[in-house]
Write a structure and sequence with these properties.
CATH topology: tt1808, chain A
CATH class: Alpha Beta
CATH superfamily: tt1808, chain A
Order of helices and strands: EHEEHEEEEEHEEEH
Strand content: 15-25%
Helix content: 10-25%
Strand order of the largest sheet: 4-7-8-9-10-11
Structural class: alpha+beta
Largest sheet: 6 strands, mixed
């Protein structure tokens, strides 16, 4: 298992980090250091795009929530790029023209991370816990290899869901009906 790439060993400020040009794949600012995310591979990419589309299909037309992929979220002296960041409609930052802003300086309401083969599970879980400690209402940690989803909610122990178990969503998404098997069926291309 390879740990995330640490680009610089010396500590920099958040302001200095935000002045650096974006990298591909994106880099994150955590505890004064720059860490580059791993390049998404097939399973990761398919789950990320399929799941964000499924969330938006239910939530966007009713103006309940919006799922965005690889969106930089800067808050709590960190700058993170969740695989999927979901914001309740009322929390989406808008500019004077009522258009979505480029900068999101708030935590997502729901953060979804998908484990890549070369990622440290603990570093990804740490990111979810950090988000919860700063106001995120729900976190998912998806592990494509063992076909599980670990659920994180404030003031609760994490739960692991498998198979036919239903996955929770934000409370405003009352029509949400997704099982773990439905999520991983996105990987089958037929």
């Amino acid at each position: 298992m390879v740990l995330p790439i640490e680009i610089e060993s010396k500590s920099i400020t958040l302001e200095e980090f935000l002045e650096i040009p974006e990298t591909q794949p994106p880099s994150e600012y955590i505890d004064g250091k720059i860490h580059q995310k791993p390049m998404p591979q097939g399973k990761h990419s398919r789950i990320q795009t399929g799941l964000s589309a499924a969330i938006n299909q239910i939530s966007e037309s009713q103006k309940l929530a919006l799922a965005l992929t690889e969106l930089r979220c800067t808050f709590g002296n960190r700058s993170l790029v969740p695989d999927i960041a979901v914001f309740e409609w009322k929390n989406i930052p808008l500019d004077d023209a009522q258009e979505i802003m480029n900068s999101f300086n708030i935590p997502p309401d729901w953060v979804i991370e998908i484990l890549s083969p070369q990622q440290s599970p603990n570093s990804v879980i740490n990111k979810i816990i950090f988000c919860l400690n700063h106001g995120t209402k729900l976190g998912w940690f998806i592990d494509p290899e063992d076909r599980s989803v670990m659920i994180f909610q404030p003031n609760k122990l994490p739960e692991i869901k498998y198979g036919e178990e239903r996955l929770p969503a934000l409370e405003i998404l009352t029509d949400w009906q997704l099982k773990v098997t439905d999520l991983f069926s996105l990987l089958k291309i037929t």
